[in-house]
Each structure stands twice: as C-alpha cells, then as structure tokens.
Amino acid sequence: MPFNLLVLACVTYVAFLFLVAFVVERKAARGAARWLRSPVVYTLSLSIYCTAWTFYGAVGYAARSGLEFLTIYLGPTLVFIGWWWILRKLVHIGRQQRVTSIADMISSRYGKSNLLGVIVTVICVFAATPYIALQLQSVTLSFGVFAAAGTYGWAMPDTNSTALWVAAGLTLFTILFGTRNLDANEQHTGVVTAIAVEAVVKLLALLAVGIFVVWFVASGPADIVARIHASSISDWELVPSRWAGFTLLSGAAVITLPRMFQVLVVENSDERHLATASWAFPLYLLAMSLFVVPIAVVGLEVMPTGANPDLFVLTLPLSQGQGALAMLAFLGGFSSATSMVIVASIALATMVSNHVVMPLWLSLRPAQSVSGDVRRLVLLSRRLSIAGVLGLGYLYYSLSGGSSALAAIGLISFVGVAQMLPAMLGGIFWRGATRNGAIWGLGIGFAVWVYALFLPSFGPGAALPIDVFMQGPFGLDWLRPYALFGVQGMDPMIHALFWSLTLNTTAFTLGSLFSFPGPVERVQGLAFVNVFDTERAEPQGWVQGRAEPEALLVMAQRILGDEAALAFFEAQAQAQGKAGYLPDPVPEFLDALERRLASSVGAATAHAMITELAGRARVTVADLMRMAGETAQIMEYSSQLESQREELTRTARQLRDANEKLTQLSVQKDAFLSQISHELRTPMTSIRAFSEIMMEGDMPPEMAANYARIINEEAIRLTRLLDDLLDLGVLENGTVQLNLKLANLSELIERSLRAASHTRPERSFTIQRDLPAEQIFLRTDPDRLCQVLINLISNARKYCDSAQPELRLVVRQRGARVIIDVIDNGTGIPRDKQSLIFEKFARLTDQMRAGGAGLGLAICREIMVNLGGSVSYLPGQGGAAFRVTLPLRLEKSPHERAA
Amino acid sequence: MVARHAMLIEDEPNIAEAIRFLLRRDGWEVTTLGDGGVAEARVREQRPDLVILDLMLPGRSGIEILEALRATPDTAGLPVMMLTAKGQGRDREAAERAGADLFMAKPFSNAEFVAAARSLIRA
C-alpha cells in the first residue's frame, strides 16, 4: 500500500474522531446527550485497557509464551466480577469527593497532603512513559510494515521521525479536546465518546482478522484445533508463579493505571453503569482474546521464520493479499494506540498541573489565588503538561531504541503503577492507614521498581553499568538488581513485583501503625472507609465568619468561571434561605465550595485556597466525636436536633426578613403619598401662579405667550406622571397589551443606548459591548424591552459615581433564555438597600433630596414579569449590576397563558 | 428707598420664574439659585433682606441650609420663608423647629405669597 495513502487514511480517521468528539461536546453542552452517558459508552471507554500492546502484542505474547497472555485479561476480569467490593467503593468515593485523578484521590485520603500528590504524580509519569513509548513504537512499526510492502508513493521517513510526527499529532489532538473546556471541568464527554468509537473499531478489526484466519486461511475451527496441537504453543507449560503474579499485576493495574482511573472513576457519570460494566467489560476482553491463539498459530506456520510475531495481526492479511483487511487491522491498532495516549496524557496532565504546577504557583504568589486568572493558568499548565508527557514518551522511545518486545514494556509499567495499590486499598478499607505510612510505602516501592526493573529495562550497560548487574553496587552482592537479597533464579519481572510490593506493603503497614494521623486525615479517613454510611458527612471545622463571601465569590469566579460560580453561589444562598444575597460563610457552605473547587484543581489545592481565605480551627470536639464510631446513635440524635435547629434558624431569618420588609414598606407607603403629593403639587404651583398672572391681563403678547407655554409644559408633565402611575397599574394587573414581534437584540441595545444618552449628556461613558454575542433574534415586545434597558442605562448614567465611568453590556444565551447584564463601575448599591430598589417610589438618595419619581425600576420589574422574564440586582460585580432575563421566544403573555 | 433684596433658592425653573415675576412687580430685587449646595455661602456673601427656601433641593436640603443659617449669630435673625410641595404636617413642624419664620405650601395664591413676603420684612 502506498505510504501517502496510509497517512491519508490516518488523517481522515483522526478527523472523523475529531468530528465525533466535537458534535458530542456540543450536544452535551446543550444537555441533549443523555444517551451518550449510557452504560454502553462507559463500558466501551473502559476498553482503553486494551492498548496497542493488547492489539498487536497479545498475539506475539501467545507465540512466545502460550496461554500466559490470558493473565493480562484475567486480572481485570476478576476485579470487575468482584466489582461490589472494590470498584463500587472507589467510584462512590471518587464521585462524592469529586476526585480528579488517582493522585488526587490518594492525596485527599491522607489529609489532602500535597506531598503524596506529588509522589503519586511522579510514579505515574515514570510508569506511563514506557507505556506511551510503547504506543508510539507500535504505530511506527505498523507504518513500517506497510511501507515495506509497497515501494511507490512517498518513501517512509526513518522510524524515529515517524514516531516524532505521531507524538506531535497526538499532542495536538489531546490538547484540542482534553483542554478545550474553559471550565477545566474533569469530565470530557466528547473524548470519552470518541474513545468508545475507537473501542468498536479495534474490536471489529481484531474479530475480522480472526475470522479471516480461521475460516479463510485455515479451513474452520476443527482445522485450527489440529494446527494448535501441532504447533509449539501446545508445548507451553503453566508456571504457577508467573501465572499468579501476572494475574495480580493486571488486576492491580486496571484500578491504578492513571488512564483507567480516569475513565473508571473520574469520567463516570452514573454509578449504576458499573453494574453493566461488571459483566460487559469481561465479555469485551473475552472477544478481544478469542482469536489470539489461532492468529498466533497460523502466523507461526504461514509466515517466514524470523517474522516479528507482534505484527502478525497486520502481516498475516498482507501476506495473503488482503490489503483492505490489513488496512482495517492497521486502523484497529492505530485506534488502540491513540485512545490510550489521549486518555493517559489527559490524566497525567491533570495530575501534573494540580499537584505540581498549581501548588508551586500558589506558594510563590499566594495573593494571586484571589486576584489572578487561575483558569487560564490551569489550562495552560495542562496543555504544557500534555506536551511534556508525550515528549517524555518519545524520548524513552528513542533512548530505549524501540527494540524490546511489546509485552515486556507494558509489564514494566504495570509493576510501576501497582505500587499505588497498598496506599489505595489501605486508604479505602483501613482507617488506621496514615499519611506517613503511605509516603514510606510508595517511596520504597517506587525506589525498588526503578532500581530492579525500570533502569535495567534500558539494557545492561545503558542506565546501570554492567558491573552492577553482575556484582551489585559497590560490590554489595545482595543488591544486584535482578537478585535482591540473594534471591536468585526468579523471573526478573516477578522478582521486581515481589520485592517492590512486599517492601511497599510492609513499609506502609509499619509506617501507619507507628504514626498518628492529623485532624484532616482522620476526617478524610472516616469519609473514605465509611463512604456508604456517612452520606452526609459533617462539615469540617471551618471558623465561621472569617471569610468574606465577596472574596470567596471572586476566587470561585477565577477558577470556575463567572457563570458557574455565580450559579453555585445563588444555589447555596437559596439553600440558606436568603435568595438574592451572597450565602453566609457557614461551614457547610465552605465545605461544598471546597468540593466544587476540588473538581477543578484537586483537593489539596482547593483546601489550601479556602484555608487561605477562611482559616480553619484545629481539632474540634465534633471531630473527635465523629472518630468514635460507637457513638453513632447519639450522633444521629444530635444531628437530628441540629437539623431542626437549622430549620428553625432559617425560618426565623425568613420571618425577620419579611418583617423588616413590611416595616420598610409601611415607611415607604407614607413616603409614597408624600411623594405623589410632591409630584402633583410642583407642576400645579407653576400652573396656578402663571394662570393668576395672566388672569390679571394687561401684559405684552410675547410674555403672555411665554407664560401660556409654561402652563402647557407643566400640564404635560402632570399627564406624564399620571401615565406612569397608570402604566404601573396596568402592568401590575396583567392587563397590558403586548406587541410581540421579532427583533434583533443588538439593534434594541443600540436604540436604548442612544435614547439613554439624553440623560446627563455631559457625562461620557466608556461602553463595552460584545457585538457578535448580541446577534440574537428575540420574539418579544421590543418597545417594552427597550423601555427597561433605557431605564437601566439611564440609572447608570445618573448614579454611577466613578471618575472614569464605564458601562458593560454582557449578553448570553442559555438554552431558550437570554441574559442581559448591565454593569457599571460605580460603588454599586449597598446590601441593605438591594431588596428595596424595585419597590415603587424607592429612591436610594435621601428622601429629602430631589431626584426621579422612583417609579422606573418598579415599572421595569413589572414589564419583565409581563415579558415572561425577570430583572434582578446582581451582587458582587464591583459596581451596580442588573440582570435582565427573558425568553428567546415569547409565545403569549404569561397571563394569557395562565388564563 | 433702596430696593428690598430677596434671595430665592428653588430648583424648579418655572416656579422660580413665577416668583421672580411676582416679587419684581412688587418692587423687589430678586436673586435666584437652583442648587442647595452653594446656597449658604451665597446668603452669607450677599446678605439679602429675605431668603425664600424650597424644602427639597439638589445638593443640600432646605432644612439643612436653614439650620446652618440659624447656627451663626449674624444670620440667626434673617427672615426665612420655607416652601414645600409636600404639604404635610410633619414637614411644617420640621421647618418650624429649624427656625423658619413662615411656611408656605405649594401651590399658593399669588396675592398671599406677595403679602407674606412683605410681612416678613416689616416684622
């Protein structure tokens, strides 16, 4: 096959995946992607366990070591069948604590320790590097197969630069999709769906090759059985230590590999999906391994001796002249490699940015946690981390020479990530596990792995001198990397697995027994181990009242984005029974906020940021009580009392608010009468005075005309006031006639700005608009909407007290609703007045001073109710800010609809 | 006879125009001011024979200006007429407490107004 055609096929395939991911993201954004979050997609996304290693390497593995390749599927199968014990708990904890990665989970469990986060991140990066190199190698090798088969078209560049191009392409794709979201939220619906598609492609490809081999090369299953008996594979004998070791290893890997943790826990959208995956995923693995042995046997028979068995899946169809089938197999392998690299680098980048870059940046510039744009930094550091991770993979590939058999590299990674198993399982099942134990266990396990497996994998004399292999370092015989403590004759892989996990577990256990957990650690330990009992864990010991809600809002906006942060604060305020204000910084709220932030930047960083603003009490009596599980009943009773007390407090606050409002309203009612009197008497005064003057007669005609004009003007003013009052009456009764038509929002805003510029024309405002965002066609009453906008803009012109006044108009479309924010940069409206401004005749300036009649905002509110929307004050925007919300298409007036 | 000087502090231009016409026809010299903020300083500077103060003014309320004038000896006895459009008892009380010599509710009859202005000078 011509090489350029191959490149074209790859590019087309990637573009197709891109399209899938893109369409899905857009659907998900509109909330229309419920079926995409189905158990089927979840199960298929788990298949990134089957990388190019499985796709190509399993056949090679079978050709070399017979049925031993099955252990790689056996471990995960056991873990999934027994999902009730481990996976269910992991996923539940992951969702409850809003875990962003495996490093985040371990760090969060052990007292939100960032040191642990860093250690786990380092282990993962080290362990994943050979694995990513493996994927680059398999894609490069498969390119090589095609390039060798055809001589026309472009010549294939040397393997090293092919690998470089592949790495660069994958970096681009991953950055585009893994970090496209400005929310930096940890779920990537688009990517997960693209991976599910790839899972289908690789399964179909392998099945197609298998069917071809069994029924078209051989003559059916019976023939295959005969051939297996004849081949060397049937001579294979089971080595119990290897069999048990590799089964344990693959079982550990399926929950500790960063990419598996990502799809299994972080991307999980519904815990019930796990029940489906528990039987469907083993079934998928079974289908993937069904034809491995037949392909290996026939390959060994048909292919010339010396042919690389790792590539039989590809070379066998090619040698039989099946170009199209080989192409399908190639795409299957390509899918396996790309999906693994994409998810692995997203997972690793999340860890690197949350546990290394962010804490570093926060400790260098603590003040920036409140004022800097954290979101951009998070995204940037993730993008750089993705490039860094893939760069390391490429580096390993070119350093290790890409020569070792595929299976060997994969197992090295497995042993590396398996080091997290003791800390992870200990963390979710043993309350006595402590941070120190985890640090010791992970540290020692990692060191043994590096020394006994990772460094030797570069070959004798490459990373470790040959002397060390033969005599041990400094002549210490018992420290030889392949024969630690004088244990000889073990398989190197099993040897490293045995010693690293044994020493790791011992250090973890002893370290935990001999150290004492800190307060946060105790709380987290309880929350993890008893995750199913403590659905609503008590909040931690935040010191109430230390944090200013405004500062918290600003910080949350930097991380979550304006929209999401505001929505979160509004929901929390609602729950506290004070809708329309910022929530009180009570411990429950701080806890919820920390958890929400943790989903973007990880538990340790979120904890540090909130502590920065709120401060935290040391161990409280409540903490200690919670530790004593035996007092659960007392706790239950007191928590009931607590919730009743909370309920009472909330009701009391609502009553107090209502009472305050009534008192204020009564004061306002007096003011209303006095105001009406004033507004009527002022024009009357002029009219009476001038009419009396004119009644006396005897004045020059031009003077008479002038006075008549004044009388006329004042009469008009009186009429206008009465009109306003009547307008308000009509709007309040809901008997208003709306004139609905289609209108362009941008033009309405333009019109309103022009009309409002007559208010205090001497002031020049800087006006910020987003014209493209304003291009929305509304079906509404345009004149009424303009009336509201003119009023809000005029108010800003009148009352904004900044020396360089600015006016921002922010337009957004959220589903079928349109949001228009009118924000100035003045001092805004004091909190105690915010609930009054929409009342009739409410004027914020002293009652004794002159101003408008105070009907404007009351009319605005009534108009918006009639347009099926609302207008409200937005607190915490750094100036006076009003939000107008209205439906995109108003069909009938709400009153008519109700009737 | 030197013309009697009245200073009118009123933010409604049409009402100010009417009062100016009435007083001038009656032989007064009239200065008008539309803003409460500078009123006290002008009064001290120009020393009018009568001050006519509106209750609701931009800048500074009529009551505040009146209190300030009553607080220093040289203007403590200056005749002050207070105008208001609210016409409520409470406002009248507040004006009297602050030391207004006369309180006039809007709208008023022209004849009554001129008579009141004259009475304040004579008294």
Topology (SSEs and partners):
The complex is a heterodimer of chains A (899) and B (123).
Chain A: H1 3-29, H2 39-46, H3 52-65, H4 71-81, H5 87-96, H6 102-109, H7 114-149, H8 159-178, H9 189-217, H10 221-230, H11 240-256, H12 258-266, H13 273-289, H14 292-302, H15 312-319, H16 323-364, H17 368-371, H18 374-400, H19 406-418, H20 421-429, H21 435-454, H22 466-471, E1 479-480, E2 483-484, H23 492-513, H24 519-529, H25 549-560, H26 562-575, H27 587-601, H28 603-614, H29 621-627, H30 632-695, H31 701-733, E3 741-744, H32 745-756, E4 766-769, H33 771-774, E5 777-780, H34 782-799, E6 806-814, E7 817-824, H35 856-866, E8 870-873, E9 881-887, H36 894-898
Helix pairs in contact in A: 1-9, 2-9, 2-13, 3-14, 3-16, 4-11, 4-13, 6-7, 7-8, 7-16, 7-18, 7-19, 7-21, 8-16, 8-18, 9-14, 9-16, 10-14, 11-12, 11-19, 12-16, 15-16, 16-18, 19-21, 19-23, 21-23, 25-26, 27-28, 30-31, 31-35, 32-34, 34-35
Chain B: E1 4-9, H1 13-25, E2 28-33, H2 39-46, E3 50-54, H3 62-71, H4 73-76, E4 80-84, H5 89-98, E5 102-105, H6 110-122
Parallel strand pairs in B: 1-2, 1-3, 3-4, 4-5
Protein name (chain B): Response regulator receiver domain-containing protein
Modified residues (4-aspartylphosphate) (chain B): 54
Keywords (chain B): Phosphoprotein
Entry keywords:
heterodimer; A: 899 residues; mainly alpha; Sodium/glucose cotransporter; 5 domains; 5-stranded mixed β-sheet; two-stranded antiparallel sheet; 5% strand; B: 123 residues; alpha/beta; Rossmann fold; 5-stranded parallel β-sheet
